[in-house]
Amino acid sequence: MRIKFWGVRGSIPAPGPETNRYGGNTSCVSIETRAGKLIIIDMGTGLMHLGNALMANAFGKGQGRATILLSHTHWDHIQGLGFFPPVFIPGNIFTVWGPGGSPDVLEGILEGQMDPNFSPLQTLKNFAARFDVCAATPSFIAEDLSIAAREHPHGKTTALSFRIEEAGRTFVYASDVGYPETGPDAASIAFYKNADVLLHDTTYKPDDQATRRNRGFSSYEEACAAAIAAKAKRLVTFHYDQDYTDDDVDTIVAACRRLLDPHGIAVTPAREGDELEI
Amino acid sequence: MKVRFWGVRGSIPVPGRTTNRYGGNTSCVEVRPRNADPIIIDAGTGIRKLGKSLMEDSFGDGKGSASILISHTHWDHVQGLPFFSPLYRAGNQVHIFARQRDLHLEAVFSQQHDAAYFPIPLSAIHGDMHFHELVEGARFEIGKAKVTCARLNHPWVAIAYRVDVDGAAVVYCSDTAPFSDMLLGKDFIERPSFGTLPPPIRDELAAMRADIVALCKNADLLIYDTQFTPDEYKVRPHWGHSRPDDAIEIAREAKVKQLCLFHHAPLRSDDENDQILAHYREVTSADKFTLVSAYEGLEIPLGDQ
After folding, report:
1. Could you tell me if residue B132 is left (phi over 0), alpha (psi between -120 and 50 degrees) or otherwise beta?
2. Domains of chain B, with CATH numbers?
3. Which of A195, B7, B84, B267 has the fewest CB atoms within 10 Å of its CB?
4. A130 lies in which domain range?
5. What is the total count of domains within chain A?
6. How far apart are CA A256 and CA A9, in angstroms?
7. pLDDT by residue (tens digit) across B206-219?
8. Domain of A93: which CATH number?
């Protein structure tokens, strides 16, 4: 699997020189499988830049297909969809697996984003590509890979985490995760168990987390504790608070390394444009 | 008064090294009359940082009052509102003005806060929000400022605002297509065609244009949607945006004193914006107005200070 980061920021895009190094676009990660298939996780503003890159190959000719895994439908995870050029090319096929348990409800929520009061697109029906919406189940097959999904608490709602396995290697995406003060339960740790790469929500420094626990995000300490308990091989930090500068993120990454080095767990910060081979 | 730009981009925010100088936030302009409450035009992502700066003042104590004039409710003009800190402090008064839609404005803005999309419902906001629905041609006062509005040519309809205060006038014309090739309203146009317009449509566009020229008459500053280059406009006339050429024509006819290029295309780099400005400064070198291009942090003083 080859992972690429297109958007690593939480809540709202954060333009400005102070976010140049890690990037200011909201959540979007792509995975190219060994068989050359494409899985996209979340549709934040990073999706526009992924889409522009995809237009150079099969997607530009209407011969592309991809699976999109959607953790939840908060703005910062869907805002890129209307600006994703491949959906305007007839022949491309997208299958979205998302939360809610009902494909109709999920499609209705995505449709609401395109409401004519808000978007010149007016409706998802104006996509030229095929755009199928499915409700994620605890396990399913997409792009010939077995994928597990697990609901985690996220403020007043929940967000899906995904576990993807290919040829004995495992990638886990766990963004927008807000554990109770007792931390992740045993089932969550089992979901992360032995992951080669655990991408985990590290929205906050612990001090900021203490005053904002109701928002449903993790501190880097909670992410590190989860990585240690699950015996993950590598932690990827992700979903940085919109007010954090690059220097703030440097602090988070350095703190993670201090916590995880003694356990032999590597740390890779998610940075726009970076790739990671598993 | 002072006019300050907090977001100058169209369509979608664009963080990154190529937008550092002009800025990547979507539309938001602050008009600050002398010794008076702020009048904010549009609530794109730029309003987040404006909100933070206001919180250092009376808004931080829950004693602030702001008016927000919304050109239209497309995402790039409202997306920042849930991140406008003064709304979350009890006591602050925020007045939202926008053109009436099929739904009441409060219902439109509530959708943005629906639990599916955002964790905090509109009903949980602590400051007092007041919604004011407008129609084209409406005139009203905000303190000592006089506000006038007129319709623009944009999908699902946008309106332009003129604010007269402190002996000067600023006009905000975004978003709009030129008034020559097609009338944009509620229809979804998949493929545009250029051709002769039926007389009623042509007349409606001509009347709309005349109203805009009148709105801009002798303005000290005209802020205008110039998202497209001429080549880009040729393939996307139905997207509802103009070229600098269109803004310049209006500026000449209305005899404005300063024209500001605004609502930059998301993928336009800083260097490209520099080139566009340099080119059109040459084009307008014999004109009486000055030409600037909006960037985040640009502040333009007008009239009495």
Report:
1. beta
2. 2-301 (3.60.15.10)
3. B267
4. 2-137+147-277
5. 1
6. 18
7. 999 999 999 999 99
8. 3.60.15.10
| Nearest-by-CA chain B residue for A118 | B74
The answer to whether ipTM exceeds 0.90 is yes
- CA dist A226 → A150, B226, B234 (Å): 15, 49, 54
Is B80 in CB contact (< 8 Å) with chain A? yes
The number of residues in chain A equals 278
Residues A68-116 pLDDT 10s = 999 999 999 999 999 999 999 999 999 999 998 899 999 999 999 999 9
State pTM to two decimals: 0.97
Residue B251 to residue B289: CA distance in whole angstroms: 8
In angstroms, the CA A160 to CA B93 distance is 38
Give the Cβ contact number of residue B207 at 10 Å.
Answer: 12
pLDDT of B101 higher than 90? no
Tokens of B267: 């993928």
- pLDDT value of position B127: 87
Q: Name the stretches of chain A with pLDDT < 70.
A: none
Inter-residue contact B99 to B108 (CB < 8 Å):
no
Is residue A142 included in any domain, yes or no?
no
pLDDT in tens, A244-267: 999 999 999 999 999 999 999 999
- Evaluate whether B166 touches B304 at the Cβ level (below 8 Å): yes
- Positive or negative torsion for Cα A50, A53, A58, A63: positive
B187 touches chain A (CB under 8 A): no
3-state helix, strand, coil in chain B (%, to 5): 30, 25, 45
- Closest Cβ opposite residue B116 in set A20, A73, A79: A73
Domain assignment present for residue A115? The answer is yes
